[in-house]
């Protein structure tokens, strides 16, 4: 078996804490800008950042929980806490979009809100865009390094926030230039569409892991190629290959047939070597192999004997 990963990854927790801190500052800035200007677009952006803050806290809790070792109640580990957190973050994005739509439609149906101190609002929103771009880039890099679904979701939140803030900034500029205050809630509706897109993408991606969808074809093929290399060491075939994601980890189990005459001791040693190689190509995957005799080989799953070369 591949060695279990234990302990909390400090790279993930520090990134999650940075996200919490940045979102807290952004909320304060946007509330100030929204109150000063009277812009519904800015206030909905503040709400969006509030949802981002909740998502960041969830991400922080989930990355700490997911790295805990298996226990009696969770024998397969806690990695799916990250996927669950990412799915919840996606739902929060969709809820935020619904609130934006409601408030924008209400403003369009009523008396237009006259905006004030627009240049100051533009300056504040520009500052929040810079912060979001910097922090989301950092979180995205950490998510790729650690394969963290929760950090990936958090980075997606902040990228969406940056994109919607750009739309709000452009809207404020247009209002300032034209004097058409109704452009403010219209821009907010455009922002809502972008938020829905990001939220739906995050929910669907996380749900595929939560329902144990198999690994991508290229990763399954990588497993098959590793098994084929073990033909010269007595492997005759394999079947019942099952592989899935859980958080940052891969879980693989399969039935492997050994040629007649292979001792149990040799088969056991080869199976462990096979587990180690699969774990190497799948970044520390947890691999379980069930041993079977050669007469269980099924058509199309044979492994050629070949010439084994230790090098």
From TrEMBL:
Protein name: Cobalt-zinc-cadmium resistance protein
Positions of transmembrane segments: 15-36, 42-63, 84-102, 122-141, 162-180, 186-203
Annotated GO biological process: intracellular zinc ion homeostasis
A Pfam family assignment: Cation_efflux
Superkingdom in the source lineage: Bacteria
Residue ranges of every copy of the Cation efflux protein cytoplasmic domain listed in the record: 215-294
Gene3D superfamilies: Cation efflux protein transmembrane domain, Cation efflux protein, cytoplasmic domain
Keywords annotated in UniProt: Membrane, Transmembrane, Transmembrane helix, Transport
Natural source organism: uncultured Solirubrobacteraceae bacterium
One GO cellular component term: plasma membrane
